[in-house]
Structures are given as C-alpha cells and as structure tokens.
C-alpha cells in the first residue's frame, strides 16, 4: 500500500483545548459596487445568511433588510442602482430572485414565483437588465428588468441554463445536459435558432461559459478536451476550428473563472492536488498569467468590480472562517475587507489536517484529510463523507471536525471516486454501476486507518451529508461489522422514492450520475440502502431538514421506521425551517452538537486535554 502524508503549507496546528468555541459571523459571496468603493456580501452573524454592505475603507458594515429567509447570493447591477438577491424560502432548494436598492428600499420579488426556482446568471452591461434562469419541469432563459420587473423569455428546454447574453441582447449562451455531460449552445434571439458549440467529444463536461470581448468568441471552462478542466476560446466566425486553450495546468484543475466587465482580464481559481486553492490573473490580450498570493487555503466567490481595478474573493482555512478579501489586480496585494480579519476569531482552538494518500481495493489512487487529536493513537475515528458526489473534501473551515477532535475523535475526510478536483475520469468513475466502487472506497479508507494505527476496530464510525449521507447508509449495509456507529444527514435511502419525490429538474439531471429509474431499476434497487436495511445493526443518527425537496425528508424517515421495527438503536432529528442545506446558524449548530454527541458516545471517545 502506497502512503504519503503531507504537512500543510500555510496553516500550523495550534494548542489543543478541551472545547471549541465556534461563534457565528462568517462573511462570504462578495459583490463589489461598479465603482469599487463598496462591497455587498453575505454574513450569518445575525443567525441566518443576509446581505451586508461595507465601504472598502470603513470600520463598520450595514445590514440591509431582507426578510426572514436566508440569502444565497447577491450581485450589484452595472449601473449601481440595484442589488439582486437569490433567496431560499424555508431553506428549500427552490429559490426566488429579489431586488432592492443599495440603501435597502424598494425590495420586491422579480423571479422564481410559484414552483419555479430562479438563479441569476449576471447582468447585461451598463444598466439593470438581468440574465435569469427559471427552472421547474423545464428550464427557461429569461431577461428581467430590475426596475420595471418586465420579463422576456428567450428559450425553454429540458436541463437548460442561461449563462450569458451579448451586450446588444442579440445572442445568448445556453448550457444544456445532465451532470458530468453538459454542453454549450448559441442562441440567436431574433430567430430562436440554436446551435451547439464545440465538437461533441463524447466525454467531459462544459459547465461555465461567457461571451468574449466584442462578443466575437466564447470562453469556456471545460474538461471536454483535457483530463483537467481548462479555459478555452472558440472563435464564433470559425467554429470548425478546434478551441484554443488559454489557460491550463498539468498539476491543477481550473475551478472557477471571473472576468472583468470588458472580458479582457480574468481571475483564475486553480484547484491543486488535495483541494488547496491558487489564484492567478490572466491578461487575455497578451496571454500573460501571473500568480497572486492566496489569503487562505481555499478560495471561492471571485468577482471583479466593473472597472476591473478591484477583485473580491472569499478565503477560508481549517482554523480560518470564511472572510472577504480585496485584491488589487495591479499589484496582486490582498487585504481583508473586515478590519478584524486575521485575528484569533476561533479562540486559538483547532487543528490543521494532513493530506494522506492511499489506494482503493482495485488500486485506484485515493486521498483525504486527516485531523488528529493530540497524543499517540489509535483514537476513536470518524470517516466523514462529503456530498455531491461531484464535490470535494478540502482544507476549509469545518467546525464539526474541530469539535470532534476536541473530544478526542480523529476525523478522516476522504475523496472517494466521483469527487471533483481530480480530473474528468475520476469524477465519472462512480457513474451507474461504478457506485459499487465508491462504496468499496469507504471500506478501503477504514482498512487504511486500521492498518496505519489511526483507528481501532470497534471505535470506527462514519458520517456524511447529502450524497455522503447516502454513502454512510450504503457502507453500513454493505460492510456490517466494520463500523460501530453512523450519522447520515439528508441522505438518499431508496433511489425509487428519491426519484419520485425530488424536484423534477434534479431528477432529470441525476440520471447520468445515478441511473435511469426505469431502465436501471434493478441496479438502483440493489444500490439502495433500504433494500438491505436488515444488515444494519449499529446505532445510526438520522438528520434531515423538514423542507428538503432535493433529498426529501422521507428518505430519512423511512430508515428510522425500518430500524424502529427491528429495534436497532437510532436517533431521528428533523430541523424545522430548513431545506437541504442547514442555513440558520442555530440549526447548523444543533446538527453539529447532535452529531458530536452521538459519535463520542457510541465510539466510547474520551476527550484528551493538553495545556
């Protein structure tokens, strides 16, 4: 077995404490004003994510009125007159689009009415016209005027997302297709004629796209032409030619691109091996790319002010809550938006993880982040499984991991096959029957922890949310005797009931990943944990949001009912007012507390105090 342990580069372990104080107050998802003098952003310091505005040189921020519902995204109009907010009523996957003035007045809903879910793709230059996707049974590309609320539907189709519109409104860029198999289409707005961009390679996916300068080209983040996602350009006048590669790395995947308003400068967020971020700035005219110091282990939310002379980004790390940073593109110098950023906001508690390599049972390379309590092992250990599965465990801020380590529980957070960040082959390796391999990867991680002296049999547990919650249930029924306890949060338990109860657009997009509920019925039945629930005989805590329409709450309820019928110890926590993601800080903390208590109790953990 090949094993590599890497010490983190930027975060060092700090003194261990008997308990971790985890105050709310993360700041994230910045949206600079067009002139770069103010930044709107989201913060949960009031208990639920809401919109705050701060002058870039001010000591205090102002909270804007936004109702009681959590806000998922905010964006500033190019004319500076409006803020657009994506709101999740009841915390559910369905979202609404609201607009308000930067002073908090004239707040009203403009999209996402009824059963439709709304997402903002961006603004047309200079004014207050928004490019919006509304999704229900089908997707609709819509232009919405923030001032008047006037709507114009450009196109409707299955699995359709509006990505961009030319400044004159004459052409639109659409994304089509299911998970891991998306492509771009160019829409002529006047005629309604659509044509597919890029040749169909039969592999990979194109998830992000923009019109280039003067709308004569399309820029795209794609892995359809390389194993690792890259930035490419296609000349619209010569589409027969292969796309030109603008930015690519053999050692990192391009995760996100943010363009200046004139599309002549781009900020590139690179995902290096294991999930650390690197930031670079690209001049599209010269092709020159230069690295910028990253203000944290993991970066996201990059966005330019309209003039291109200010870049905002969200940064975080294992002991660094999400914070907004400002980058001067001319110098590459980062500075925090919030004056107290960089202070010991976690009470100097927390540990930094180590990156560990291992091998799956079939030899596939795997990796994960290991959080160790102080002192020698073995320890009670929990394997944490991320959602997605097209997501990635990264060295970001995770209060749950720190709380478990403070109670003497080691945490190993792996990236099993199907995770993003490791190339298109790896992310597609769990499709359909490949899911058996992903389930076996969790067992391989457990065996590695036992063999390497991290864990001991009888004190090994697993936890996960969303797809990770599914994996928890799947490994417990497929590998009885390996784990002593589990916590499954918002996880699928039966693919048949999941497909019947989830949102229609979620079901349609999932077919390429999980399988068709009719054509692949036998496969999905066997992969469903509920089919084999009689094999589950260890204590399991089930946690779900009452309003979840992504993975409906009944997925956990039917497991609880089956375990109760057999007398298997279990807990069932349903959080009112929450959907698939627990957005209210009090509810997220309730889930963390319940998870920590369940695992420490059933893994017989004992807190170790040092110092």
From TrEMBL:
Annotated GO biological process: proteolysis
Pfam families, alphabetized: PD40, Peptidase_S9
Domain Peptidase S9 prolyl oligopeptidase catalytic: 401-604
UniProt keyword terms in alphabetical order: Hydrolase, Protease, Serine protease
InterPro entries xref list: 6-blade_b-propeller_TolB-like, AB_hydrolase_fold, Peptidase_S9_cat, Peptidase_S9A, WD40
Spans annotated as Disordered: 329-352
Domain of life: Bacteria
GO molecular function: serine-type endopeptidase activity
PANTHER family given in the database record: DIPEPTIDYL PEPTIDASE FAMILY MEMBER 6, SERINE PEPTIDASE S9 FAMILY MEMBER
Name of the protein described by the UniProt record: S9 family peptidase
Organism per entry: Micromonospora orduensis
Lineage of the species this protein comes from: Bacteria, Bacillati, Actinomycetota, Actinomycetes, Micromonosporales
């Amino acid at each position: 077995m090949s094993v590599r342990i890497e010490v983190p580069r930027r975060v060092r372990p700090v003194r261990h404490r008997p308990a971790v104080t985890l105050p709310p107050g993360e700041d994230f998802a910045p949206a600079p004003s067009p002139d770069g003098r103010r930044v709107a952003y989201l913060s949960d310091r009031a208990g639920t994510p809401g919109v705050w505005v701060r002058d870039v040189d001010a000591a205090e921020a102002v909270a804007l009125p936004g109702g009681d519902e959590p806000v998922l995204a905010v964006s500033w109009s190019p004319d500076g007159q409006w803020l657009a907010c994506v709101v999740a009523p009841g915390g559910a996957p369905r979202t609404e689009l609201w607009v308000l003035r930067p002073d908090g007045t004239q707040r009203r809903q403009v999209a996402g009415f009824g059963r439709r879910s709304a997402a903002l793709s961006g603004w047309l230059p200079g004014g207050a016209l928004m490019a919006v996707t509304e999704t229900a049974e089908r997707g609709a590309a819509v232009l919405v005027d923030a001032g008047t609320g006037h709507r114009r539907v450009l196109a409707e189709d299955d699995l359709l997302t509006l990505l961009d519109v030319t400044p004159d409104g004459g052409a639109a860029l659409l994304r089509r297709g299911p998970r891991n198999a998306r492509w771009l289409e160019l829409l002529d707005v006047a005629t309604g004629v659509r044509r597919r961009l890029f040749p169909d390679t039969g592999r990979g996916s194109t998830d992000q796209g923009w019109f280039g300068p003067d709308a004569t080209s399309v820029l795209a983040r794609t892995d359809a032409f390389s194993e690792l996602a890259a930035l490419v350009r296609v000349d619209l006048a010569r589409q027969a030619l292969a796309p030109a590669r603008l930015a690519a790395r053999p050692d990192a995947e391009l995760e996100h691109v943010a363009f200046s308003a004139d599309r002549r400068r781009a900020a590139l967020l690179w995902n290096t091996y294991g999930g650390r971020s690197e930031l670079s700035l690209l001049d599209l005219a010269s092709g020159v790319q230069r690295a910028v110091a990253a203000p944290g282990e993991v970066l996201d939310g990059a966005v330019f002010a309209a003039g291109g002379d200010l870049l905002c980004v969200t940064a975080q790390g294992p002991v660094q809550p999400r914070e907004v940073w400002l980058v001067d593109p001319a110098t590459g110098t980062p500075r925090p938006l919030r004056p107290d950023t960089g202070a010991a906001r976690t009470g100097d508690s927390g540990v930094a993880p180590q990156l560990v390599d291992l091998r799956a049972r079939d030899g596939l390379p795997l990796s994960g982040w290991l959080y160790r309590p102080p002192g020698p092992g073995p320890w009670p250990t929990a394997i944490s499984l991320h959602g997605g599965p097209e997501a990635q465990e990264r060295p970001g801020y995770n209060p749950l991991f720190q709380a478990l380590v403070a109670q003497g529980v080691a945490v190993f957070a792996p990236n099993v096959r199907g995770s993003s960040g490791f190339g298109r082959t790896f992310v597609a390796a769990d499709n359909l029957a490949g899911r058996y391999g992903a389930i076996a990867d969790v067992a391989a991680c457990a065996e590695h922890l036992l063999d390497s002296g991290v864990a001991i049999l009888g004190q090994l547990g697993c936890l996960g949310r969303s797809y990770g919650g599914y994996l928890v249930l799947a490994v417990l029924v497929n590998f009885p005797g390996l784990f002593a306890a589990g916590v499954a949060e918002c996880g699928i338990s039966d693919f048949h009931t999941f497909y019947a109860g989830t949102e229609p657009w979620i079901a349609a997009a999932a077919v390429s990943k999980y399988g068709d509920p009719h054509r692949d019925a036998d496969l999905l039945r066997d992969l469903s944990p509920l089919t084999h629930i009689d094999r589950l005989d260890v204590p399991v805590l089930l946690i779900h949001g009452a309003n979840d329409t992504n993975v409906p709450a009944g997925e956990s309820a039917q497991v609880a009912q089956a375990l109760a019928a057999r007398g298997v110890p279990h807990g069932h926590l349903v959080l009112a007012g929450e959907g698939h993601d627990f957005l209210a800080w009090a509810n997220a903390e309730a889930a963390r507390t319940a998870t920590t208590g369940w695992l420490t109790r059933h893994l017989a953990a004992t807190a170790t105090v040092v110092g």
